Task: structure prediction
Amino acid sequence: MNIMKNIILSIAALFCSVVAIAQPKTCSTMWPYLYPEFTEGTIYMAGGQKVIQKVNIHTQKGSLHFIDDKGVVREAVLKDVLVLEVGEEKYMCVSGSMMKVVASEDRGLVAASILGDFQKLSDKGGAYGTSTTNSSTQKVTSIDIAGAVNQNHMELWNNRQNGETVDLVTKYYLVTPDGPVPANKKDIETVIGSSRAGEFKAWLKSNKIKWNDPQSLVTLLDFICKK
Result:
């Protein structure tokens, strides 16, 4: 809890206001990244160091990739990463995945998980040219997804136009010192327990939440963090 509290306080201190910026809606199996190219970013490490690297977010699991001095794609150890800053966009590790900080206040923040819907692509069939019937039992890992660690960046870049289009799906989380909570009514009710169910229902009636609006979701911290 103390570690999460320190992260939240650090983000509040470093970045007083965070504005949600439109994200791309798709990536591809041959370029399964959030950004169209590796972009210079600043990594604030848990130990206090600040590292500048060309980075990208791999949309299969939300891992943080960077290019080393030999032009090889590497994966960062997320437990060592406090905050990632790319331009005006900020990210932090939530439940083992890099999520974008889209709203924040002293008590917590709203984080967006933006991942590729590779399972949908697998369910549609066509992985490696197979039919829908044959591919229905295949796992998502059967799809030829690029961006493997230790791959040469230029090789990856030269093949980026190939592959199949993958939809990006955004899910929001409320992050407090007690941990992350999916930003939806059902999961919040589970976290607060039956003893506060009636109170939450009344609060929602007085506060019209827009479940896809980070600036609206951040007001839920008023209720969740209330002791």
Q: What stands out?
A: The longest strand covers residues 165-176. Residues 108 and 226 are 12 Å apart (CA to CA). Residues 2-14 form the longest helix (13 residues). The chain is about 25% helix and 30% strand.
